[in-house]
Design a protein that fits this description.
8-stranded mixed sheet, 2,3-Dihydroxybiphenyl 1,2-Dioxygenase, domain 1, 8 strands, alpha+beta
């Protein structure tokens, strides 16, 4: 089953956590110094906020899938709509290891289709990662156009 994913960049994490916890009537399932995530069932959404210096607003949108077959299907859909697609398998970002495809919609908004494979203890591939990006270069939306992931791994 698919789950909608929304990731917002916020200026400060604590006020965002208070606001969205009240809005969703639920506490986040993941809280880090710079990141929080709610895995909601009603509505079925993976909603994340991060305070990592990116411009405030929508960082990216996405569709989270449960298994590799669903992810492969999403990849085929993206290719059929004649979109530039950036594949990242086994990438480490947003405290998770994931397989994913990135693209942008006609308005320039970044979209991520992904399957989470596991969690990691830091935001990116290493403790040294600045983690100030979320979408690969060339796929970046206006809100995250300063992204510059490492050569081998992208970021949330």
């Amino acid at each position: 089953m698919k789950r909608m994913h929304l990731h917002l960049s916020v200026p400060e994490l604590e006020p965002a956590i208070r606001f969205y916890s009240q809005l969703f009537a639920a506490e986040p399932s993941v809280v880090k110094d710079d990141y929080a995530k709610w895995m909601l069932e009603d509505p079925r959404v993976n909603f994340a906020v991060s305070a990592r210096g990116a411009p405030v607003g929508v960082n990216h949108l996405g569709i989270q899938v449960d298994d590799a077959d669903e992810l492969e299907g999403m990849g085929r859909r993206l290719e059929q709509i004649d979109a530039d697609v950036h594949e990242e398998m086994g990438t480490l970002c947003c405290y998770a290891q994931s397989d994913k495809y990135w693209t942008t919609d006609p308005a320039g908004i970044a979209w991520e289709s992904y399957q989470t494979l596991g969690s990691i203890p830091m935001f990116g591939a290493s403790a040294e990662d600045s983690g100030d990006c979320c979408v690969p270069g060339g796929v970046a939306s206006d809100a995250s156009s300063s992204c510059s992931p490492t050569a081998s791994k992208g970021c949330c």
